[in-house]
Amino acid sequence: MRKILLTTAIAAVLGMFVIGTMLTAEENGTRLASENPQIDYLGFVRQVQEVAEVREKRRVSEDEFIRMMDDSETIVLDARSKRMYDLLHVKGAVHISLPDMTAEDLAKLIPQKDTRVVIYCNNNFKNEPKAFAPKSPIASLNLNTYNTLYSYGYRNIYELKPLLDRNKTKIPFAGTSVEETK
């Protein structure tokens, strides 16, 4: 708990520093943003701070994840590449690659924004280096997926918390690598 509070406090202070620096630069007439109205870095930084508090309360254990995935009202979402999804994914997960997430595509996949969505990524599984190659902790796909879903108005998002051994987890998998081992 202490680690979580310390991490949240550090993130908040750094975020305030970044926002303060950006606002100061804007006040001094310095243009930090490009002339592209479709890119809002300052808005992104603000949202990351907002999401940090919500996300921490929505990270679930292996058993909670399994319970949620067994609920027909829940969508388990895999945002990795199609190639990695096809190779190995949580059984029953639906796929949309993070770069392909648009409001329209998400609405087709998750029509109701209050639907419970459970996410996982490469950094949730070890001992599966091909399908779940670990990413840098600060580049973890869960972080970007959570923030992207949130930015499109989805608020009932949960995330698998632990790092699990692919060979020991109770979570069932599907994909071509599973079919090849049968």
Model description:
- The radius of gyration is 18 Å and the shape is globular.
- It has helices at residues 2-27, 41-57, 62-69, 82-87, 103-109, 141-151, 176-180, and strands at residues 59-60, 74-78, 89-90, 94-95, 116-120, 125-126, 157-160, 164-165, 173-174.
- The longest helix has 26 residues, at 2-27.
- The termini are far apart.
- The chain contains 7 helices and 9 strands; from the N terminus they run ααβαβαββαββαβββα.
- With 182 residues, the chain is α/β, with parallel strands linked by helices.
Provide the helix percentage: 40-55%
Give the C-alpha Rg: 18 Å
Beginning-to-end CA distance, first to last residue: 42 Å
Side-by-side strand order of the widest sheet? 1-7-5-2-4
Task: Please give the number of β-strands.
Answer: 9
Provide the low-confidence segments as ranges: 4-9, 27-31
Relative strand content = 5-15%
Characterize the biggest β-sheet.
Answer: 5 strands, parallel
Following the backbone from N to C, one meets helices and strands in this order, namely: HHEHEHEEHEEHEEEH
This entry's quaternary arrangement is single chain
Strand-pairing-aware structural class? alpha/beta
Number of helix segments? 7
Mean pLDDT: 87
